Amino acid sequence: MTEKNKKKITVEVDIKAPIEKVWHFWVEPVHIVNWNNASDDWHTPSAENDLRTDGKFNFRMEAKDGSSGFDFEGVYQEIKSTESIIYKLADERQVEITFSEKGENTHVREIFDPEDTFSLEMQQSGWQSILDNFKKYVESNTGHETLHFEITIDAPAKQVYDAMLDKVHYTEWTSYFSPGSHYKGSWDEGSKILFLAPDKNGEMGGMVSKIKKNIPGKYISIEHIGIYKNTDEITSGPEVGPWQGFLENYTFEEEEGTTTVQVDMDIDQEYKKEMEEIWPKALEKLKSICES
User: Fold this and answer.
1) Mean per-residue pLDDT, 239-259
2) Phi, then psi, of 208 in degrees rounded to 5
3) Contact indicator for 99, 113 with CB cutoff of 8 Å
């Protein structure tokens, strides 16, 4: 059978979660490593994902006993956020994934070119098992939610952006979250940054994070990858808790010298009420700093 005449394989599933959450869990490496396996004796110890047209991905898949493994890798051809992904694998096979809302659920469909080694039935079963594992992982993370806050500040966007990140001002407007709050590291795109504060015993704790995106005066995206505890950076294991992989995004929109700051942050239900109380106060403080 020629490549042109090969029958494509389809796998699909309905997931009890909003499409934004499903997309987030599908594309973020911190989540990919938790669901990308067809059976319990395999896992994905590492994942790299440059989610853009012509961007590359590489998910390392291995048997847990170390007996075998391979790189699942390819190049993205087209990406429509929360809608579809098309990519080519290293062996030139094409895969198309679509995400669509189905009431309160999200439908995910994968259509892919088969390879020659295994039967069509075996390939369909393997890919379906991974998709079913993804469904299970998403639906088990029931506490995930995205909160939105915004405030209008009578100052240009670049001024607001600079004040928000300034080390001195940062400790002022974030003091509502925890007295002594500060950061260590760089806001440069791709850099690691620590968000820290002392606890009641004086021991330093906080978040280990990464700057996913930074467009000065316009947009910042922070990915939380672990916790900081007793001088240790913990990025794996049960201690990490529900924050790993969550995003915190800041958008700055200026109109005639006035800036609207929008904050969108992933949150666990346990902390939702606390964040809903604190963020408006913190943004009011930022407003005061910028307008004084």
Assistant:
1) 87
2) -100, 125
3) no
